[in-house]
Write a structure and sequence with these properties.
The protein is of the alpha/beta class. The chain has a single domain, classed as Rossmann fold (3-Layer(aba) Sandwich). The chain has eight helices and nine strands. Strands 3, 4, 7, 8 and 9 form a five-stranded mixed beta sheet that branches. Strands 1-2 form a two-stranded parallel ribbon. β5 (121-123) and β6 form a beta hairpin. The longest helix is centred in the last third of the chain and has 15 residues, at 169-183. The chain binds S-adenosylmethionine. S-adenosylmethionine binds next to loops. It comes from Streptomyces nanshensis.
Length: 205
């Protein structure tokens, strides 16, 4: 995300807890001097981010809170960094769709257990247990932190389940367009492996 946002012309500050991941990110940024001049990388923890309130026009946290115990404290820490008129973008595991992956892969016992309990934790792509949030919960957390939720999207609705998929460039583009069309429409968006919740802090007059 740091590379993509910087390539789009934004000044980006990337924060990462793991020194190894930070080094890897730094190497990739350094490989592109035009982008590197707009990027600052820092080692840090989501619970103790060393920035002033309202320091950023956009706060992007993708693929992180699913690894944390819950989303309440992390989202409070992130929301305070959003400037008036700015946005908070959170991408995480979708609790509404627990059990879908397991059922499609034939692991019916796990699928049933998850579907019947609606449990938030299950084993993700990397073999690590991850925790889901519902879109409603993420929107509520945005509200209690002074932000206004925008319509949420489902992400990886279809292609997340195609483990042996090796698309051509054209198939990949077609798949992305299909995901995009489904991402904001029910009932498809509810089945996304991930949920993308975006919320805005109202601009001050
Ligand atoms: C799946 S990666 C996502 C990375 C990136 N956001 C992306 O979309 O490519 C999750 C990252 O969160 C980091 N992380 C986990 N707990 C964290 C914490 N408490 N504070 C900051 N980063 C954390 C991990 O070290 C890991 O690099």
């Amino acid at each position: 995300m740091v590379l993509r946002l910087a390539a789009a012309g934004h000044h980006v500050t990337g924060v990462e807890k793991s020194a190894g991941m930070l080094t890897s990110a730094a190497d990739r940024v350094a490989a592109d001097p035009e982008i590197a001049e707009r990027v600052t990388l820092a080692e840090g923890d989501i619970y103790t981010l060393p920035f002033e309130d309202g320091a950023f026009d956009a706060v992007v946290c993708h693929g992180v809170v699913m690894y944390l115990t819950d989303s309440v404290a992390p989202l409070a820490h992130l929301a305070r960094l959003v400037a008036p008129g700015g946005v908070l973008s959170v991408l995480t595991k979708n609790q509404l769709a627990v059990g879908v992956r397991e059922a499609l892969s034939g692991d019916y016992a796990s699928a049933r257990a998850q579907i019947e309990s609606g449990q938030a934790a299950s084993v993700g792509n990397l073999g690590i247990t991850t925790r889901g949030d519902t879109p409603e919960h993420l929107d509520d957390l945005a509200r209690v932190n002074g932000l206004t939720p925008l319509p949420w999207q489902g992400v990886r609705i279809f292609h997340d389940h195609r483990t042996d998929w090796k698309p051509t460039e054209n198939e990949y583009r077609e798949a992305l367009e299909t995901e995009w069309a489904a991402s904001s429409r029910s009932p498809y968006r509810e089945l996304g492996r991930l949920v993308h919740a975006v919320a805005r802090r109202e601009a001050t007059a």
